[in-house]
Amino acid sequence: MxxxxxxxxxxxxxxxxxxxxxxxxxxxxxxxxxxxxxVDVPIHSxxxxxxxxLCVALEGFPAPIVELKSKLSxxxxxIAPELMGSKWAKVTVAAVRDDAEDRQTSDPAVWDRLxxxxxxxxxxxxxxxxxRLQEVSVVSFQCRSLxxxxxxxxxxxxxxxxxxxxxxxxxxxxxxxxxxxxxxxxFTSNENWASYRDNGIIARLQPAASYRQEFxxxxxxxxxxxxxxxxxxxxLKQHLCDHDLGWLYEWMPNNVxxxxxxxx
Length: 264
Prior knowledge:
alpha+beta; 37% helix; 25% strand; 4-stranded antiparallel sheet; single chain
């Protein structure tokens, strides 16, 4: 009960701060044209994160989100330290099925096959569907998937109007890009793979039930704008089925797919 009260108080403090300062923080400089609009964040790759969770790693956080995260940490006393899971931009799309334990998920060969399948996927053009973001939301949730949640406050991101070719470099914060690339390298490099597979995946298997079970908290997220990923994820599912891995995952609901900005 006490923990829930603390979460509520922090969420209220963050909401109050956003209402007071968001227009200043998210505004562009006066001499540059700006507009509120959707921004497309390119995909970096699909990876196997800790516990076997399937994540779509993005090229990085848009610069306004990085600025918001930085100023929030300085402005709200008592806010919890940022955890590793929100320091790189990603969308969690699936977790290991609860009954998958009966299908030899402790067998390293299963994860080797999945890694190979994802290497094929990531080198194809199929993964060029961007994540579309427009708002940052403070939400109170009742389970980790956010299938049950309440939006406490949303603020539109104001992006500088892109000049020239609108390249990735003009949207994504450079330091955020480098951080995400380093995390992906840690999860996928050949020299780390065997140790990570055995100690980071098999030994720490995280079933889908852990995302469905009751768990209360508050967080800041950027929901994907629409169902632009519905077809993309269907193609990914079929790709895994083609490699006899369709039995492995339970997929997150499309309507709550999100990028975690920061836990509160």
